[in-house]
Design a protein that fits this description.
The protein is of the alpha/beta class. The chain folds into 2 domains: 313 residues, ABC transporter type 1, transmembrane domain (ABC transporter transmembrane region fold); 238 residues, Rossmann fold (3-Layer(aba) Sandwich). Strands 6-9-10-3-11-12 form a 6-stranded mixed beta sheet, sandwiched between helices. It starts with a helix and ends with a helix. The structure holds adenosine-5'-triphosphate. The site of adenosine-5'-triphosphate has 13 residues, from α11.
Length: 587
């Protein structure tokens, strides 16, 4: 237990260091801010000497001119302080904003290339909140707390030096009180840091719960779940509040205790100092300067103790962001990638085996082998859970096979870049996901540079032309996040058009299981008819009309390839297929 705590304190200092890497490009701004920081700290410290001068020379001499001179000097300091403060504030905030923006970018750029399995173990909504809340926290810390801490460290060192310079004996009182101030900072600081991380976690829970409920609003309302969602959300909000409250309590105690100790020391010092002035040991100006420096030293310790917990909070946030940045993508491009010649390529699946990393005891695909030649249409059928979608995922290399190989044009996909593989594949998912934006934007998702002609050619091939033209805004029709406003059949046809725009060599079509209206089904059949021979089509088929079109049908059961042949052949030769077909295609 103790060891664990020790480690956390050690980590304190190191977890923020990755932020330094993000500071490197902005050395100029950091230097400007640092110079301003030193200048302002220097100017503030010089004020103490100004005070001594004004009191001892100005007042004591009784000459108005000396007083005017002293005040002139004072005004010069203040001007310097003002300019320095402006420069410091501007550049420090600038760097804070810029660095948190860069961290946001780095995290997103890393995650967008992550193997999809990663998001099965790390909820995307939680990651989303980390990208926003954790980086915002870093922004405040880098954009202010770090500068406050540095400024106060400078003030502390400078103030202490000048204290000794002004009056060594009195300074010893101040120094003697330091351990009493530092001890509670370390003790409470540790607790605050631990609570900070929990607090951020709870906040992420709040964000992800709200995100999920609102995204699935129709399900929520349809099940009359609003009340229970309110209660569950309140629960999370209150938990987050409770943890924050604990943190605030620790922090409040910390600040109060430090203040008490610091001002206790100041009072003692005043008592001793006052006596020294009375006996004539020290001048009044010296005592005034001493008090000024003592306040600066005390203030800086207080300020450091206060921002220390901010820094600790940021260290927690940084730790989590760095965790994300450091998690390796399990699917990477090979160092020396091969290339595939030509656009018509043969897809070979050779003794393919696969288990999901999250379920290592279940073999989802076992020894599956087949080829799909250019222009061929192959249908994959099989009961639910047979491994059909998994096969599609493996072909797109969302997962790495455990055994066997996938080859494109005779080249093992492990030797190809993900971009090479995916550029040859067009994918139509079972539930055709569309992004917010217009139909045109959704089609161009597959290929930004497609011309107007290419767009319409794909729309025609997908048999979507008629309904797109009938929409008042045509291609400019806006679609919701899930393509709200279009029927399932229409969305599927748009998804086919989107896949076709990039002119893939292989089309992976995961047919909708839901019953499409007769007209949509008819259109999709015609669309497949038009595509046949133009590219390799691999389709997870749920309809008789589709399997009848296929050149070859693969029957998958329990992850194994049981039979293959045409519909007629299989009806005659395969009991499994005949049984399956009677059930599946009865409608
Ligand atoms: P359906 O027609 O119902 O979509 P399918 O034939 O496409 O079924 P798959 O989705 O490939 O079947 O699933 C095959 C098996 O793998 C199932 O038992 C499923 O529970 C499991 N499975 C699917 N996805 C994952 C995953 N991400 N992690 C762990 N197991 C999974």
């Amino acid at each position: 237990m103790d060891e664990g705590l020790d480690r956390e304190v050690n980590k304190d200092l190191t977890t923020l260091t990755p932020a330094l890497k993000f500071l490197r490009p902005y050395v100029k701004q950091v230097v400007a801010a640092s110079i301003a920081l030193v200048v302002t700290a220097g100017a503030t410290l010089s004020l103490g000497q100004g005070i001594r001068l004004v009191i001892d020379s100005g007042f004591a001499s009784g000459e108005a001119e000396v007083l005017v001179d002293s005040l002139r000097l004072f005004v010069a300091f203040v001007v310097l302080l003002t300019i320095g403060t402006f420069v410091r504030f501007y550049f420090v905030s600038w760097v804070g904003e810029r660095v948190s923006a860069d961290i946001r970018l780095a995290v997103f750029n890393h995650l967008i290339r992550m193997h999809p399995g990663f998001f099965e173990e790390n909820a995307p909504s939680e990651i989303q909140s980390r990208i926003t809340t954790d980086t915002t926290l870093l922004q405040t810390v880098i954009g202010s707390s770090v500068s406050i801490a540095l400024r106060n460290v400078l003030m502390f060192i400078g103030g202490l030096t000048l204290l000794f310079f002004t009056n060594a004996k009195l300074s010893l009182i101040v120094v003697a009180s330091v351990p009493f101030v530092v001890a509670p900072i370390i003790l409470f600081g540790r607790r605050v840091r631990r609570l900070s991380r929990t607090s951020q976690d709870r906040l992420a829970d709040v964000g992800s719960f709200a995100g999920e409920s609102l995204r699935h609003i129709k399900i929520v309302q349809s099940f009359n779940h609003e009340g229970r969602d309110e209660a569950a959300f309140q629960d999370r909000v209150e938990q987050a509040f409770a943890v924050s409250l604990q943190r605030i309590r620790q922090r409040a105690v910390l600040v109060a205790v430090v203040m008490l100790l610091v001002f206790g020391a100041v009072a003692t010092m005043l008592w001793f100092g006052g006596q020294a002035v009375l006996t004539g040991e020290t001048s009044a100006g010296e005592l005034a300067a001493f008090i000024f420096y003592a306040f600066i030293v005390a203030g800086s310790v207080g300020a450091i103790s206060e921002v220390l917990s901010d820094l600790q909070r940021a260290a927690g946030a940084m730790e989590r962001l760095m965790e994300l940045l450091a998690s390796p993508s399990l699917i990477k491009d090979p160092e020396n990638p091969s290339t595939v010649q030509g656009t018509d390529v043969q897809l070979s699946v050779e003794a393919l085996s696969f288990k999901y990393p999250t379920r290592p005891d279940m073999r989802v695909l076992q020894d599956v082998s087949f080829t799909a030649s250019p222009g061929e249409m192959v249908a994959v059928v099989g009961p639910s859970g047979a491994g059909k979608s998994t096969l599609f995922d493996l072909i797109q290399r969302f997962y790495v096979p455990d055994g066997g190989a996938l080859k494109l044009g005779g080249v093992d996909c492990a030797e190809l870049t993900l971009e090479t593989i995916r550029a040859r594949i067009g994918f139509v998912p079972q539930d055709p996901v569309m992004f917010a934006g217009t139909i045109r934007e959704n089609l161009l998702y597959a290929c930004e540079s497609a011309t107007e002609d290419e767009i319409w050619r794909s729309v025609k091939l997908a048999h979507a032309e008629e309904f797109v033209r009938a929409l008042p805004l045509g291609l400019e029709t806006k679609m919701g996040e899930d393509g709200v406003g279009l029927s399932g059949g229409q969305r599927q046809r748009l998804a086919i058009a989107r896949a076709l725009i990039a002119q893939p060599a292989i089309l992976l079509l995961d047919e909708a299981t839901s019953a499409l209206d007769a007209e949509s089904e008819h259109h999709i059949r015609l669309s497949i008819e038009g595509l046949k021979g133009k590219m390799t089509i691999l389709v997870i088929a749920h309809r008789l009309s589709t399997v009848r079109q296929a050149d070859r049908i693969l029957v998958l059961e329990d992850g194994q390839l049981r039979d293959s042949g045409s519909h007629e052949e299989l009806m005659a030769s395969s009991d499994l297929y005949a049984r399956f077909a009677r059930m599946q295609f009865a409608a």
